[in-house]
Amino acid sequence: MTPNTSDHATDVESSTKTTTAAGETDSALVTARRQLERAATHADVDDGVVERLKHPTRVQRVSVPLERDDGTVEVFTGYRSQHDDVRGPYKGGLRYHPEVNANECIGLSMWMTWKCAVLDLPFGGGKGGIAVDPKSLSHDEIERLTRRFAEEIRDIVGPTRDVPAPDMGTDAQTMAWFMDAYSMQQGETIPGVVTGKPPVIGGSHGREEAPGRSTAIITREAIDHYGRDLSETTVAIQGFGSVGANAARLLEDWGATIVSVSDVNGAIYDPDGLDTHAIPTHDEEPEAVLEQDAPHTLSNEEILELDVDVLIPAAVGNVLTDDNADDVQADIVVEGANGPTTFAADTILEERGISVIPDILANAGGVTVSYFEWLQDINRRQWTLEEINEELEVKMLAAWEDVRTEVERKDLTWRDAAYVVALSRIAEAKAVRGLWP
Ligand SMILES: NC(=O)C1=CN([C@@H]2O[C@H](COP(=O)(O)OP(=O)(O)OC[C@H]3O[C@@H](n4cnc5c(N)ncnc54)[C@H](OP(=O)(O)O)[C@@H]3O)[C@@H](O)[C@H]2O)C=CC1
Ligand SMILES: O=C(O)CCC(=O)C(=O)O
């Protein structure tokens, strides 16, 4: 099939914006561009490079027909946005969620470019997915959908071109089907086409927990930076999946008090602390949070306004907006999710003295362990879980120090500082390759 590819993606970039009650336009793409424009004023980067980075290299949109279990046919829309590859192959997850659209994928792929650069990984940024509610499909239907999606985007992915991974609504099994479908088309087993696979077929130990682990590591460092003690820290976490649940359990193990967690239906709250190991994760049992014993339940709006030391939004994007930023009571927000804070909310939180540690640093453990997986696939050698976690700690602490240095040197917000680190590495790579614009 001929790829339906738009090199400039203008058609999609001008559509699908959402607006908050207060009128703030906040698609992931709009937020990502505003963040870039603001951060660029603090970085020594050519205006032309910044202009180029506002646009993806390529966005592929495909129709993904699915034969349902009852024999009827339904057609879903899938996307893959490839933002920039100056530092290496495009890298980023595949999301299965009803709200997936082109602009969301472009914005998320921009964030992947910065994330890989902040962590100094040899990758660029990509992101994709299918506009579908995976909970409405059977196991077999998700397998058929994934295999067909892999066929539709096979021309633009590959271990040295673009390497997908899990994101919301996808997991190690999804990656296994994707890898198998791609390998069958290529006529040989190619584990490195995706990361986040089960270890038995070339996946890495620790990948599933990694974005939650890095979110916990960065929370720990932030607490220490502000002269506090983790054992006296209260935390609320929105979302109890790969990112939220793993961050919650680690922070609890390290002494923090997790007072509230939520899933799509709402939150449970215990001011004395929850036993997060006893709460099933999204992977173990979706929508199980409200079934747990707890003194209070809250809505997903209320959890964001709890009086806690640390708030970790770890579910969907755009949850902190100009509508509720004034009501946030946490002292520190650590972004476990991608893009939970709109541009206007960021400004309000900054004015109120609330530190926001950005997604492109905090949740970067996922793509970092994906990089370790990619290396393991190339070398056909599996690292132990201990090796993975040790290397992840080293990479996260190095990135934390790089960003912290910029925060202190230029008196920047954590987000601006992370962008400055990323942009300078990307601009230097473009300059040295002579790859401008
Ligand atoms: N997986 C990864 O490798 C990485 C993911 N991220 C980002 O982290 C975020 C979460 O991803 P991940 O943990 O993988 O997702 P999962 O699918 O594993 O879990 C998502 C969690 O969020 C809950 N949820 C879904 N919709 C809402 C909503 N509208 N309000 C509140 N909670 C909701 C789900 O509830 P329920 O169980 O009831 O469905 C579930 O608990 C996303 O922004 C993703 O892009 C970032 C880096 C890496
Ligand atoms: O592991 C990866 O390649 C990407 C993970 C991801 O999508 C993300 O960090 O948002």
Automatic annotation (TrEMBL):
A Pfam family of the record is: ELFV_dehydrog
Record-annotated membrane-spanning stretches:
none
Instruction: State where composition is biased (Polar residues).
Output: 1-22
- This protein is called what? Glutamate dehydrogenase
What is the organism of origin for this protein? Natrarchaeobius chitinivorans
Quaternary structure annotation from Swiss-Prot or TrEMBL: Homohexamer.
The UniProt record lists the Glutamate/phenylalanine/leucine/valine/L-tryptophan dehydrogenase C-terminal domain at 204-434
Keywords of the record? Oxidoreductase
Active site at K127 (proton donor)
Q: Which GO terms describe its biological process?
A: L-glutamate catabolic process
